[in-house]
C-alpha cells in the first residue's frame, strides 16, 4: 500500500506528527488485536490531531460499521479494496467531518487475487512477497476465513515478475507469504503446488535468498523438502509449521488437518532431508477440550522433537468462531501456567542452538537501520537473530553477508563479519 502511494506522488513521513495520512493495517485474530487497533488510532490522534486515519485490514472486514464509528477514523478500507487506497484518499474531504467513508467489498469464495505493486522502495532488507490470500479451512479457533474470503493465488508468472523486480531493487531476502500459503495454486488452472512455485522462483533470485512463511504441516511434501536440500544457498533452511496442539483429541476439536503423529513424522523427515533446517511451530494452550492430561501428552510430544522454537499463545475465545461456543476451555490460571512451561522449553531450545552455533559462520541478512544504540541486527538463513557492531553494520546494512557467530548467553547472538566470506 505504501508503494502504491509513493508511485502516486506521496512521500513517507518518518514521524506521524508530520504526516497528512496514517494508514493502519489492522488485525482481528483476537479481541486483544481489536483493542490494539483502537489504541493505535487514539495514540496517533493525540500526536497529530489533524492527520487523516484510514483503517484497513481484517478489523475493517469484521465489522465495517463498528470500525467506521471509532473516534478518529476517517475512512474504512476492506481487505479486497486495498488496491483502491489512492483513489480513496482523493475522495476524503479536506478536513475531518461527518461519518467515515466506508469501502468494504463483500468477500466471496472465488473472488480474484488482486495484487498490490511490489514494494521495491521498501525500507527493509527483507521484502514480503504475497502470493496467496484467503482460506478455505474452518479451524475452530480462527476468524480469518470470514474476514479474508476464499483461498486465491497470484499466477506464477506474476509472482516471478514481482520477484525479479524486488531482486533488481537490491532486496537481500524475499519472504513468500499468504494467509494460507500451503494452499497456494489449488484454484489455478492448471493447478500449481507450492513447491512448483518455489522451483520457478529459484532461477531468478540472483544474490537474494528465499524464505517461506508459515506452512501447515500436512501441506509440506517431499518435493518441497527436496528443493530446500538441493538449493541451500537460495532457500532458507527454515520451516514454520503451526501444530497448534500435540494431542489428537484437541486437534480434532480444533478441526486441524493433521494428527500429532503425522506432525512428528514430518518434523523428523524434514530434519533428515534438509541438513541444518530450523523448524518452529505455533501452539495454542487451553483450547476447549484440553485438560491437564491432553496438555501433558502434547507437551511431551513437542519436547521429544528436534524443534528450534515455539510461539505459544494462550487460548482466547473469539466471537464468531466454533470454539467460542465450545465448553471446557481451560481456566486462565491453567492457561498461564501451561504457556509458561512451553515458553521455558522454547527458551531452552534457543539457548542450546546458540551454544551450538558459536564459532561457526552463517549466512546473514543485515537490517537496513541500526537500533537506537547503533547496533545492527540481522537474521541467519536458519532463523537466528544476530547483533553486529556499528562498524560492521553500517558497511553491510541491507546486504547478505557471511558472519562469524558468538554466544555470550543472551537472547541474541553476537557476530562479526567474516570478510573472507563476505
Summarize the structure.
The chain has helices spanning 2-7, 31-47, 58-62, 64-68, 85-91, 144-148, 156-168, 194-201, 222-230, 248-254, 260-273, 292-303, 332-357, 390-396; strands at 21-26, 52-57, 75-77, 101-103, 126-133, 152-153, 173-178, 209-212, 238-240, 278-285, 309-314, 361-366, 376-380, 385-388, 400-406, 413-417. The protein is of the alpha/beta class and 422 residues long. The protein has three domains: 2-103, Cobalamin-binding domain (Rossmann fold), CATH 3.40.50.280; 126-356, pyruvate-formate lyase- activating enzyme (Alpha-Beta Horseshoe), CATH 3.80.30; 358-417, OB fold (Dihydrolipoamide Acetyltransferase, E2P).
Protein described:
The chain is built from 14 helices and 16 strands. It is globular and about 60 Å long. The strands form four sheets. A five-stranded mixed barrel has the order 12-13-14-16-15. A four-stranded parallel beta sheet has the order 1-2-3-4. The mean pLDDT is about 95. With about 425 residues, it is of the alpha/beta class. The chain has three domains: about 100 residues, Cobalamin-binding domain (Rossmann fold), CATH 3.40.50; about 230 residues, Alpha-Beta Horseshoe (pyruvate-formate lyase- activating enzyme), CATH 3.80.30.20; about 60 residues, OB fold (Dihydrolipoamide Acetyltransferase, E2P) (Beta Barrel). It starts with a helix and ends in a 5-residue tail after the last strand.
Amino acid at each position: 500500500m505504501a508503494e502504491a502511494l509513493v508511485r502516486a506522488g506521496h512521500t513517507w513521513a518518518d514521524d506521524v506528527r508530520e504526516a497528512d495520512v496514517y494508514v493502519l493495517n489492522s488485525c482481528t485474530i483476537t479481541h486483544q488485536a481489536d483493542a490494539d487497533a483502537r489504541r493505535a488510532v487514539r495514540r496517533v490522534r493525540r500526536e497529530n490531531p489533524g492527520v487523516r486515519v484510514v483503517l484497513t485490514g481484517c478489523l475493517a472486514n469484521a465489522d465495517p460499521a463498528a470500525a467506521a464509528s471509532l473516534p478518529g477514523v476517517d475512512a474504512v478500507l476492506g481487505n479486497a479494496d486495498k488496491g483502491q487506497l489512492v483513489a480513496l484518499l482523493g475522495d476524503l474531504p479536506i478536513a475531518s467531518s461527518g461519518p467515515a467513508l466506508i469501502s468494504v467489498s463483500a468477500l466471496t469464495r472465488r473472488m480474484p487475487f488482486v495484487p498490490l505493486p511490489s514494494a521495491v522502495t521498501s525500507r527493509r532488507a527483507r521484502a514480503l512477497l504475497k502470493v496467496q490470500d484467503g482460506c478455505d479451512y474452518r479451524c475452530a479457533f480462527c476468524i480469518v476465513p470470514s474476514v479474508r474470503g476464499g483461498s486465491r493465488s497470484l499466477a506464477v508468472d506474476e509472482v516471478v515478475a514481482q520477484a525479479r523486480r524486488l531482486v533488481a531493487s537490491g532486496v537481500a531476502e524475499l519472504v513468500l507469504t499468504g494467509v494460507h500459503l500451503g494452499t497456494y495454486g489449488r484454484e489455478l488452472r492448471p493447478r500449481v503446488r507450492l513447491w512448483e512455485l518455489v522451483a520457478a522462483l529459484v532461477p531468478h533470485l540472483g544474490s537474494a535468498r528465499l524464505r517461506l512463511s508459515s506452512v501447515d504441516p500436512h501441506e509440506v511434501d517431499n518435493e518441497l523438502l527436496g528443493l530446500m536440500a538441493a538449493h541451500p544457498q537460495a532457500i532458507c533452511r527454515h520451516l514454520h509449521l503451526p501444530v497448534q496442539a500435540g494431542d489428537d483429541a484437541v486437534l480434532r476439536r480444533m478441526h486441524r488437518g493433521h494428527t500429532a503423529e503425522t506432525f512428528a513424522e514430518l518434523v523428523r523427515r524434514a530434519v533428515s532431508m534438509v541438513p541444518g533446517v530450523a523448524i518452529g511451530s505455533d501452539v495454542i494452550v487451553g483450547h476447549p477440550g484440553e485438560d491437564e492430561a491432553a496438555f501433558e501428552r502434547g507437551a511431551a510430544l513437542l519436547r521429544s522433537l528436534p524443534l528450534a522454537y515455539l510461539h505459544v499463545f494462550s487460548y482466547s475465545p473469539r466471537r464468531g468462531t466454533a470454539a467460542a461456543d465450545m465448553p471446557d476451555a481451560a481456566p486462565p490460571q491453567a492457561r498461564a501456567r501451561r504457556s509458561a512451561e512451553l515458553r521455558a522449553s522454547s527458551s531452552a531450545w534457543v539457548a542450546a542452538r546458540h551454544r551450538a552455533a558459536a564459532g561457526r559462520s552463517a549466512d546473514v541478512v543485515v537490517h537496513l537501520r541500526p537500533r537506537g544504540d547503533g547496533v545492527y541486527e540481522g537474521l541467519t538463513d536458519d532463523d537466528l537473530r544476530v547483533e553486529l557492531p556499528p562498524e560492521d553494520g553500517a558497511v553491510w546494512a541491507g546486504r547478505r553477508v557471511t558472519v562469524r557467530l558468538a554466544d555470550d548467553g543472551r537472547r541474541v547472538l553476537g557476530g562479526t563479519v567474516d570478510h573472507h566470506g563476505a
